[in-house]
Amino acid sequence: MKEFFEGIQSLFENVLFLPMHYFRSLELENWTMANIMNWLFMLIGFVAFIYWMKQLQKFNDNNEEDRDQTSHSFLG
Fold first, then answer.
1. Residue 45 or 27, more confident
2. Half-sphere exposure of 32 (CA within 13 A, CB side)
3. Same structural domain for residues 22 and 42?
């Protein structure tokens, strides 16, 4: 059983974390490129937020949401 967990450790340390080790060594040379993953995740989150707001506006314009006080028990 110990070999199984050591195999998982080896996979992560020697294969899957290689890009992260590269970004860590790149930090001293180019800060922006070292944080490219962070920029990518922020961009994805920003695009998802804009899409979500547009969908909410679409449903709001069509009056599809039930806004009665009886629709939510905590409002009344």
1. 45
2. 0
3. no
